[in-house]
Amino acid sequence: MRRRRSPAGVHLPGLFHRLLERIRGWEQRLVRGSGEHPLLLLSYPRGKEEAAREVEIAYTHTLPALGAETVAPYAKVLAALPVMVVVLLRPVNPCGCLGHHHPAGIESRLTRRLAAELGSNVGEIDLAYEAIRDWRPQPLSSLAAGDLGESLEALHFQAALLAVLLHELEHLAFPEKKERAIRGASNEFYSEVMRELVAREGGTGYGMAGPPPRP
Ligand SMILES: [Zn+2]
Ligand SMILES: [Zn+2]
Question: Is 95 helix (H, G, I), strand (E, B) or coil?
């Protein structure tokens, strides 16, 4: 597994300032993953920092707190990605998809410029956060969630964001892999994450840390 670090000599904040002030109507947030997980550059419509914050919490708090077995199927994926992945956030996609990976050659101008300036590969995916919020890979009522009430929706959003994020990252890391296999893994991952989060929130198991901090 190769080492993952920022390309030498690049001062990220200065670079981003120069590049990003040119993009009208969109804002960016750089999110550092734990360990050697790639940096995510979230790009989202101005005023939608709530959505970006949810993705940041999912990637920096929820993911690292999951059990090793739950995350194991994605260890190879996270290790195979470029140092940085641009994540374009929109409420919904016109085609109705929850997300896409953008194969080399069709990335946005932002990603191509970043890759040129960093002198390294930069990946790109998109996520449709309102569509992901509404996605129900399994009925929430099927979870023994006791009286979690509205916080069950919040847990679902975290689990669903992570499942779709990792789904698209797997396409990016292994373009030859079949949709069926990738979807099977991400649906299973969603179920496992929900089981863990519900158990943790309900205080019934795993002895894990408390819920991630809210903004
Ligand atoms: Zn689509
Ligand atoms: Zn897919």
Answer: coil
- Chain centroid to CA 167: how far? 9
Q: What is the pLDDT of residue 56?
A: 98
Yes or no: say if 131 and 161 are a contact pair by the CB < 8 Å rule. no
Please count the helices (runs of H) and the strands (runs of E) in the chain: 9, 5
Ligand nearest to the CA of 90: 1
Sheet of 99-101, strand order: 26-31, 39-45, 84-90, 122-128, 99-101
**Per-position b or e across 96-124, b if 16+ CB within 10 A of its CB:** eebbbbbeeeebeebbebbbeebeeebbb
pLDDT tens profile 36-45: 899 999 999 9
12 Cα to the center of ligand 1, angstroms: 31
Residues with CB under 5 A from ligand 1 (ion): 95, 97
CA 186 / ligand 1 centre spacing (Å): 17
pTM: 0.84
pLDDT one-digit tens code per residue, 147-195: 777 789 999 999 999 999 999 999 999 999 999 999 999 999 999 999 9
Give 88's strand partners. 43, 126
Q: How many CB atoms lie within 10 A of CB 210?
A: 9
